[in-house]
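Hey, I was hoping to borrow your eyes for a little while. There's a protein on my desk that I can't quite get my head around. The fold is given in discrete form, as structure tokens running alongside the sequence. I'd be grateful if you could look everything over and explain what you see. Here's the protein in full, and shout if anything looks odd to you:
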Amino acid sequence: MSNSYDIIIIGAGVTGCAIARELSKYEASVLVLEKDEDICCGTSKANSGIIHAGYDAKPGSLKAKMNIRGNELMGSLAHELDIPFKRIGSLVVCTDDSQREGIEELYNRGIANGVPDMKILSREEVLEIEPNISDDVVCALYAPTAGIICPFRLNIALAECACQNGVEFSFDTDVTEIIPTDDGFIVETPKGSFQSKVVINAAGCHSDELHNQVSSNKLHITPRRGDYILLDRVCEGFVRHVIFPQPTKLGKGILVTPTVHGNTLIGPTATDTDNKDDATLTADGISKVIQGSAKNTKNTPVKQVITGFSGLRAHEDGGEFILEEAEDCPGFFDCVGIESPGLTACPAIGEYMAGLVSDKLDLRQKDSWNGICHDIRKPFEMAQEDREQLIREYPEYGRIICRCETITEGEIIDSIRRPLGARSLDGIKRRTRAGMGRCQGGFCSPRVMEIISRETGIPLDQVTKSGGNSRILNGRTKDES
């Protein structure tokens, strides 16, 4: 790895990786620095996986513009990256007749933003398409362009595509200082110093800290924790659309949505915190999620909860995306305050920021660029004849490791060997879903650890859940003789 680059991107979440993919179209040396052990370890790994239609953001705002453009791009992007994406539509549910005007305001805002094909549905129309909506429903805003996606696969595929087009990545590389120089920046890390002409700040909840090192125009991020619960796939069909309550100042409220994998996701809460790295799930958070879901849905099968999790959203005080070159620090570009609808907006943000940086550096587009990626082969999603052929050629695709999700040894090996491959249990989980089922890895984790150790050479007692000090094994119960 060189220590000098044209562009350094700080943060390998969905925003940083979308920018990296777009910049990989140009003749430039690009490095992504990530403080954690893998792609998708921050906000991008713990969100609702929803592609928003775009009626919520203030007309004319960057949030609105990036949401609409990102929604438009998502279908073709998902096809190019070979990841699951479904336009199932969303409903904003009104359960109080006195708040009907709020639904009409959202509708008018969506029209101003350019959201297509919206409708306000009557109580009867809502109950016809969603039988498990609350009996108190009055009406709902229907937006058919909303959808659901796998946030892990989106983030990882963006990174893999950038990598196959020449972008370098360095993990476990925390940025400790950014020093402006006459011809760019020196970026200090525990792994040494890196030089670049341009720095792009896509550091999520820590993005204000990096900005404030180089600019006198200070920014402030408040981490906003959101708690979720996930229902087993036996509940598939409980809702068929993304179900939102009417939004508040703190966010879009407790939603209920299908996932692309057949689970049902409920959440998030919205709790402001001072800790930018602590996304610990709490019993109080779970209780609030269950209580909140009951306002819009009935008969919620909460006994089918298989796991819960929390994520942190990077809320900037102004409540707007900041996508610009710092006024008093030429060459330093901010992507700050990327909260909802950040996942939806990521392809648009990538496009927009790459445009700003390419203009700044007068970059030339490459003569050849490959934007097509291929997902891990999934034998149990194949036709039987194709699956049998694959297993004849590669028997490891016939050995099931994760019974809950029917994940094979071949898929786990692929997730380790492919570009930017997994090195931890969570890395395997995000790429393959091994450990995401009903038993939450209780059966398959030891086998997955053995495969990681065998394929990477990492000693078994050094294999981690999520990098750092998260080792699974603390010692041996018996000495080997």
Notes: The mean pLDDT is 96. The two ends are 42 Å apart (CA to CA). Residues 62-81 form the longest helix (20 residues). The domain at 87-148+222-316 is CATH 3.30.9.10 (D-Amino Acid Oxidase; Chain A, domain 2).
